[in-house]
Inverse folding.
C-alpha cells in the first residue's frame, strides 16, 4: 500500500497531511455511476464483484481520497439472515418486519462465505488494485434493528422505541442476533482484505443518552470487543450523536465519527483525547459556493489537527445532487491546507 | 388567574411544585378531539373561536396541566402573507414555494386584526375561561422558511440550505419579512390576552452552529428584542438543538426548550444559569409502560429542580398514538414528586 495516512490517523500516529475520504463517495454524484445504474440496480452491482470493485475504485481515482469504502448497503447482511428487502427511492423496505420473539428466533445464523461470496470476491479484487486502504463496514445494531422493526426508514422510530420499552426481551434477543451477525460480517470483510472497518449508526441520534446506555451500549461494546482481535482500526459513526459521544467512547472504538452539528473542539472535550475523530462538514454545504465550503473546511481542519488522530470527512453521506468536481477540489484543499499545519 | 406557577418558573421565581404542560397536549391523543375532527379540519377548528377555545381548554381540564397553549398551527400566519397551504397527512404543503427574491418581495405585510380576527376572538374567550396561563406561539424563522422554501416537510432541508449559501440576499430578505410577521403575530396574541409566548424552531437542529450563528441568530435576536416590551415570558424551543444552546441563549429568551437528546444538567452548563429550562421527556416514552416513564421523569425532575426556573414538558409534541390517561397520570406525578423537592 502506497498511502497509509488514513490508517495512521486512525491510530493517532503522525501524518504528512490530513487524510480525507467522503461517506458515499461512490454513488449518484458521479456521472459514471449514474451510467452504470442505467443498466444495474444497486443490489445487482453489489452482486457483481468486477463491477462493484470498479464502482468502489472510481472515486479514489477521481478525487484522490485517502481511503476507499466498499460499495454496498448497510442492509446487505439482513437478507441472508432471513429478512428480504427491496431498495426503493425512499430507502429499504422490508415486507415482513420483526414484530415478535418468534420473528427474532426465526432469523438464521449468518455465514459470510455461504451468504455473501461476492462480497469476499469484491474485496479480494480491491485488495490487489487499491493503493489506499479499503474500509469495510456494517450498519450498527440500533439502525439495523430500526429498519427491521419499522419495515423501512422512519422519522420517529416509534415502533422501535416501543419495542425497547414494552418488550426488552424481544429487543435484546434481536440485539444479540445482530451482534453475532455484525461481528461475523466485519470479520469476513477483514479476512477477505479490508484494512479498516466503519460501523454506521445513522439513526441512533434519535435516542436519549439514558436509552442509548440501557438498550444499545452493551451490544456496541461487545461488537467492538468482538472485532478487536482483527487488528484493523474501527470507526464508530452516528448522525446527531453529539450528546452520545461520552457513551459511544465507552464502546471502545479507535475513531468516532461526528456530524456537523457538534464542533470538533466540543466533540474532543466530550470524547476525551485518547480517541481519533472523523468529520464533519455538512454535506449540504457542497451544494453551495466554493467560498463557503472553504471557510467551513478551514475551521474544521484548524480544530481537527489540534492533536494527532483526525480524518477529514463529511458529517453524513454525499448527496446525489453534489458535483463530483467539488469533491475533487475539496480533497485537494484538505491536503494542501493541512500540509503546513499537521503536527509531525 | 388561580395558578401562576408556570409564569413564576419562566421568571425563575420560587414555585410550590414543578409546573407541567405538554407540547401538542390538545390533539389526536384525545378522544374528544378525534370526535371533533370527524366534523372539522384542523384549519376549520382554528377559524371557529368557540370550538378552538374548547379544544384548547380540554387538556387543561383533563390533565390538570399548569398552562394552556393556543390550539393552532405554526403555518397559520403564512397564508395571510401570501403563501396558501394545505395541511396533509405528512404535514403542510405549499403549492408555490419561495424560489426567488421576487417571491419574497410579493409577500404581504401581516395585520393581526384584519388577517386573523378569529385568533384574537379565541384568545379573548380563553382569557376569560382559563384559570391557568395561556401560551401564544409562533413558528421560528428558520422552520417557517424551510416550509416556505421546500414546499413542505423535508428531511435534509437541502433547498433551504442551498438558498442560504447561494443566495444570502434572498435568505435575509425572507428572514426580515418573517421577523416582522412573527413579531406582529406574537404582539397580536399578547394584546388579545396571551400570558406567555413560545417560538417553535422544530427544524433548526439541522444546522451547524456556524450556520445558525450566520443565518438565523441575528433574526432570532431581533424577534426576542422586538417582543421584550410585551412583558410576558417567552420560550425558545428547538428539536435536536443541544449543540445550539449557547447561541440560542444569546438570542435572549427567558426560557430555553430542550429535547430529550441533551440531559438537563448538560443543557444548564451550556446555556448558563440565568435562563429557565423547559423539557425534556422523549414523547415516545409515553407509548411504553408507566414504570419506564416514571424512571425517566424522576431523572429529569431531579436535574431540573437544581435551581429555580424549570418547567416539565416533553422534548417534542405528544404523538397521536398516546393514551391521554398517561398524560393525566404524568402531570399528577410531576406535581407530586416535585412537591417535596423544589426550592422555596
Amino acid at each position: 500500500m502506497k498511502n497509509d495516512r488514513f490508517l495512521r490517523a486512525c491510530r493517532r500516529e503522525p501524518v504528512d497531511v490530513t487524510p480525507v475520504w467522503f461517506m458515499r463517495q461512490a454513488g449518484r454524484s458521479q456521472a459514471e455511476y449514474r451510467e452504470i445504474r442505467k443498466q444495474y440496480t444497486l443490489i445487482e452491482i453489489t452482486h457483481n464483484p468486477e463491477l462493484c470493485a470498479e464502482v468502489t475504485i472510481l472515486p479514489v481515482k477521481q478525487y484522490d481520497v485517502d481511503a476507499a469504502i466498499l460499495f454496498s448497503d448497510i442492509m446487505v447482511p439482513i437478507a441472508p439472515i432471513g429478512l428480504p428487502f427491496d431498495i426503493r427511492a425512499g430507502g429499504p423496505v422490508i415486507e415482513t418486519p420483526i414484530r415478535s420473539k418468534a420473528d427474532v428466533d426465526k432469523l438464521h445464523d449468518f455465514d459470510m462465505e455461504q451468504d455473501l461470496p461476492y462480497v469476499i470476491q469484491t474485496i479480494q479484487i480491491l485488495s490487489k488494485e487499491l493503493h489506499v486502504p479499503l474500509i469495510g463496514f456494517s450498519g450498527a445494531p440500533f439502525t439495523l434493528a430500526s429498519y427491521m422493526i419499522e419495515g423501512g426508514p422512519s422519522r420517529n422510530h416509534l415502533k422501535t422505541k416501543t419495542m425497547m420499552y414494552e418488550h426488552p426481551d424481544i429487543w435484546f434477543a434481536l440485539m444479540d442476533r445482530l451482534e453475532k451477525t455484525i461481528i461475523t460480517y466485519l470479520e469476513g470483510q477483514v479476512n477477505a482484505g479490508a484494512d479498516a472497518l466503519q460501523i454506521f449508526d445513522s439513526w441512533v441520534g434519535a435516542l436519549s443518552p439514558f436509552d442509548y446506555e440501557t438498550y444499545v451500549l452493551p451490544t456496541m461494546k461487545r461488537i467492538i470487543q468482538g472485532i478487536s482481535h482483527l487488528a484493523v482500526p474501527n470507526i464508530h459513526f452516528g448522525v446527531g450523536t453529539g450528546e452520545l459521544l461520552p457513551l459511544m467512547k465507552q464502546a471502545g472504538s479507535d475513531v468516532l465519527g461526528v456530524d456537523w452539528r457538534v464542533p470538533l473542539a466540543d466533540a474532543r472535550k466530550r470524547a476525551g483525547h485518547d480517541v481519533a475523530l472523523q468529520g464533519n462538514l455538512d454535506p449540504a454545504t457542497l451544494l453551495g459556493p466554493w467560498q463557503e465550503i472553504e471557510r467551513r473546511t478551514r475551521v474544521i481542519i484548524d480544530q481537527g489537527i489540534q492533536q494527532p488522530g483526525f480524518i477529514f470527512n463529511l458529517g453524513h453521506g454525499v448527496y446525489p445532487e453534489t458535483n463530483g468536481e467539488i469533491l475533487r477540489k475539496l480533497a485537494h484543499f484538505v491536503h494542501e491546507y493541512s500540509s503546513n499545519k499537521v503536527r509531525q
User: Anything to note?
Assistant: The radius of gyration of chain B is 19 Å.
